[in-house]
Amino acid sequence: MDLAQIPVLSLVADRADLPARIGESFRTFGFAMIRDHGIDQSLIDQAWARTEEFFALPVETKQKYFIPGQSGARGYTPFRTEVAKGAKEKDLKEFWHVGRDVPADSPLAASMPPNIWPTEVEGFEETFRELYAQFDEAGAKVLSAIAVDLGLDAGWFDAGIEDGNSVMRLLHYPPVSAESGGAIRAGAHEDINLITLLLGAQEAGLELLSKDGRWLSVAPPEGAIVVNIGDMLQRLTNHVLPSTTHRVRNPEGARAGHSRYSMPFFLHLRSDFRFVTLPECVSDENPDRYPVSITADDYLQERLREIGLKM
């Protein structure tokens, strides 16, 4: 398996030319790698430990935190629930979602239910509230660089992500057994949101589909995070920034007996944000693909149905 040669950029050292460099990486791969992102490593270590502790709980205990009718928005989603768009086999994963809490009287409350927290894991709520906040801040910095690269004001995305419907997902891919059939840990897909920030997993498996049709391994160095473009940003930029297909393949040999943990932060727009294609991304050679405007929540709900989280 060839390794994707994605440059590792610093939010600090590369600040002066970050917009151009991150834009080039996204246009080439749909992915970037970022270090000096400001997310505290000791907090990350705590988060890994508490993630493993939660998923080690009995199935019946975890199932208490599954909320029917919420499309997986908060709490626990059981093993083999989500399916990649167009796939026949459900993914070999279970996960937990942490979202943004908004006041009960907020106009956004209908699309952003309150968080729930497992009482069996000490410090779970405190750890993931703080990690969510740090992810949120890092994501805003990346979006600022993207805005400048697109010829926009550095703060262009600020209003769109204020109280955005962002979700942090704690992922567990259990050991792969012979009974898995043709299923894989995460089928080939594109993310729904604006950008995804991903903490590196201890186990390999993340791959992106290159423009020439090859699967390339994505392996961030220690301390770096992977960032990829989601379909919402692809739509907003009229495909100038591509949402790249990626997957998590099954391990082979002895590694099949090991769990894999991953922690993506799906940075979303406000639910009431209306998509209007950026004029900077429309030209005679690239006419507007999306002349009809819809809200971010309309788009999200449509996609949740496609991946089996919403009926």
Descriptive report:
- The chain is of the alpha+beta class.
- Helix content is 25%, strand content 18%.
- The strands form two sheets. It has an eight-stranded mixed β-sheet with strand order 1-2-10-7-12-5-4-3. Strands 6-11-8-9 form a four-stranded antiparallel β-sheet, with no helix packed on it.
- β8 and β9 (215-217) form a beta hairpin.
- α1 (18-29) packs across α4 (124-149) and α2 crosses α4.
- The radius of gyration is 19 Å and the shape is globular.
Return residue spans where pLDDT drops below 50 for at least 5 consecutive residues.
none
Helix content: 25-40%
User: How many strands, what sense, and barrel or not for the largest sheet?
Assistant: 8 strands, mixed
Strand content: 15-25%
Total of DSSP H or I helical runs spanning 4+ residues: 7
Instruction: Write down the overall geometry.
Output: globular
Mean pLDDT, all residues: 94
Q: Strand-and-helix sequence, N→C?
A: EHEHHEEHHEEEEEEHEEH
Taking strands numbered 1, 2, ... along the chain, how are they ordered across the largest sheet? 1-2-10-7-12-5-4-3
Distance between the termini: 37 Å
Structural class determined from secondary elements:
alpha+beta
**CA radius of gyration:** 19 Å
**Total E-strand runs:** 12
